[in-house]
Amino acid sequence: MIYSLLVLSSPVSGHGSRTAAEFAQCVLARGHSIRRVFFLDAGTLASSGTSVFAQDESDPVHLWVALAEQHALELVICISSALKYGMLDQAEANRHGRPGPTINPVFAVAGLGQLVDACAHSDRLITFGG
Amino acid sequence: MAHSGKKTILLVLRHSPYGSSLAKASVDVALATAAFSQAIDLLFLGDGVLQLIPDQDSRALGMKNVGRQLASLPLYDINHVYVDAEAVMRYSVDLSQAPVDTRALDKEQIHRLMVGYDHLLGL
Questions:
Q1: With an 8 Å Cβ cutoff, is B119 touching chain A?
Q2: Catalytic site residues of A?
Q3: How close does chain B come to A129, measured CA to CA in Å?
Q4: Which residue of B has its CA nearest to A122?
Q5: pLDDT at position A7
Q6: Can you tell me the mean pLDDT for B88-92?
Q7: CATH architecture for residues A2-128
Q8: Beta strand pairing status for B103-105 and B119-122?
Q9: Is the pLDDT of residue A95 over 50?
Q10: DSSP A1-36
């Protein structure tokens, strides 16, 4: 079965982002595929390349990076949310005159069309948070 | 099990218009989905019915007017807008003056509505 995930929860408040990442791991372990994970609103903070977590806390951002690296999972952050939350790739940092990129490059910045595409081409769309 | 093509989507709007950024985000999702010619209907549920309050003025909050955005739904061919009748009663929302035409449904009707779509998108 083809899944897509919509993540609305911030990785630093509550457990929605972590639950989504663990759900993605389970989906893949069971042999299903994931077309895309789309991050919207506070969910876009999962792309942060600059967050620092205390040593005795787990790093929910790292979970997503590991998934992307191990499974070539497509991680897309909504551009309008991302800009407001300061989650910029190099191109957006240049475009808006900001000092530099703030996201981990395993994440792509794109429009809501990528969520629409995920809906159209997935059997299941699972929302986390909101 | 279809892997591609058009899917029917019910967007469930559950948040008050100005308590967070999710109400505006959900309207953006509705408009984007319709702009890509996908079939999308809307259901305002629980606190989400507050988005339908007539004559909203959000200027003092420095936020975009959600009511005005909702008024543009028919321009995007979003014509099926449903609303949680119980929440409308609870909040005394005057649907006759709402920014968009809606159809009020009770719990049983909402249940029957939800099972009829390929995707439920809840923001």
A1: yes
A2: 78
A3: 8
A4: B3
A5: 97
A6: 97
A7: 3-Layer(aba) Sandwich (3.40)
A8: unpaired
A9: yes
A10: -EEEEEE-S-TTSSSHHHHHHHHHHHHHHTT-EEEE
